Amino acid sequence: MFNWNDLNSFLTLSRCSKLKIASKKLKVEPTTIARRISRLESNLKTDLFNKSPKGYLLTEKGNDLVRYAEKIENEIFGINDNFLKSNPNIRGKVRLSLGEGLGVEIISKYLSMFYQKYPEIEIELLADTKSRSLSNRETDILISLSRPQKGRLLSWKLCDYFVKLYGSDKYRKNIKLIKCTKDLIYHDFVSYVDELIEFPELNYLKEINKNLNVVFSSNSLRSQLLAVKNGVGLGLLHSFIAQNECNLIPILPDAINIKREYWMVVHENLSNLQRIKAVTNFLTFILKNEKKNFESNL
């Protein structure tokens, strides 16, 4: 007879490869997880992991067991949610990953409305440029910049948005000298830190010119916005954010108008859970409500 705690420890370790990380996720001692894995391997009479300097790596049999264990995990999630359907207060934790501009500037201002309807759902909002895996349970819901091409994932497009080049009032005299994109090589720029960009869709500057002079870079969109506002340099910013800043001036708006997309992505194992549905439905409502601002091409 298999113990769910053993299988759950196996799944968690398979997704993070490190005993210390798995122990933090499950809130048990690393030795407890190691003991559970040993017991599971003994019951199955096979090795599930190979230990290496990189951590615990799945064997072929371990990969086979993941598929069965995920089905059991999904059924357990389903049992919890089916019982909760009789309770008006859907509860549980939902981790949401998305870009900083969308998360901080848009989603956050709707949170009080969400909690009025779902007071017992805890949202963990991860708003940055880091790519997180749905298959490895690094996140429950991902708002991506493109549709995933592989994996047992469900996805649907939310909306388009635009990125334009902006400068501040402090930069106005220099902006007057910009007549075409070739003139941009004489100006300073604000951008993302190249090696920290995990989404190729964020490499905006390369679509204009690979040889632009970047004087300030940050993985924070908010920091970039403030740098542009304070005249540090020019920057490519989300128009749904920058258009609300009265001291920002669009530069060559007809020539520089980069279109991007927002996609909602969830793992098929989680898609029918009530707490996941509650969050995805609410996010869809937000993006629909903000659609005019996102798709503004002025």
What does this structure look like?
This protein is of the alpha/beta class and 298 residues long. The protein folds into 3 domains: 4-84, Arc Repressor Mutant, subunit A; 92-159 and 261-294, D-Maltodextrin-Binding Protein, domain 2 (3-Layer(aba) Sandwich); 161-259, Periplasmic binding protein-like II (D-Maltodextrin-Binding Protein, domain 2, 3-Layer(aba) Sandwich). 39% of the residues lie in helices and 24% in strands. Strands 3, 4, 5, 6, 7, 8, 9, 10 and 11 form a 9-stranded mixed beta sheet that branches. Strands 1-2 form a two-stranded antiparallel sheet. Strand 1 and strand 2 form a beta hairpin. It is elongated. It starts with a helix and ends with a helix. The model has no long low-confidence stretch (mean pLDDT 87).
The DSSP helix count reads: 12
Q: Could you tell me the strand content as a percent range?
A: 15-25%
Helix content: 25-40%
Tell me the major beta sheet: 9 strands, mixed
SSE inventory with pairings:
Layout: H1 4-16, H2 19-26, H3 30-44, E1 49-52, E2 55-58, H4 60-84, E3 92-98, H5 100-105, H6 111-117, E4 121-127, E5 141-144, E6 153-168, H7 172-175, E7 188-191, H8 204-208, E8 213-217, H9 221-229, E9 234-238, H10 239-242, E10 248-251, E11 257-267, H11 274-289, H12 291-294
Parallel strand pairs: 3-4, 3-5, 7-8, 7-9
Antiparallel strand pairs: 1-2, 5-11, 6-9, 6-10, 6-11
Helix pairs in contact: 1-2, 1-3, 1-4, 2-3
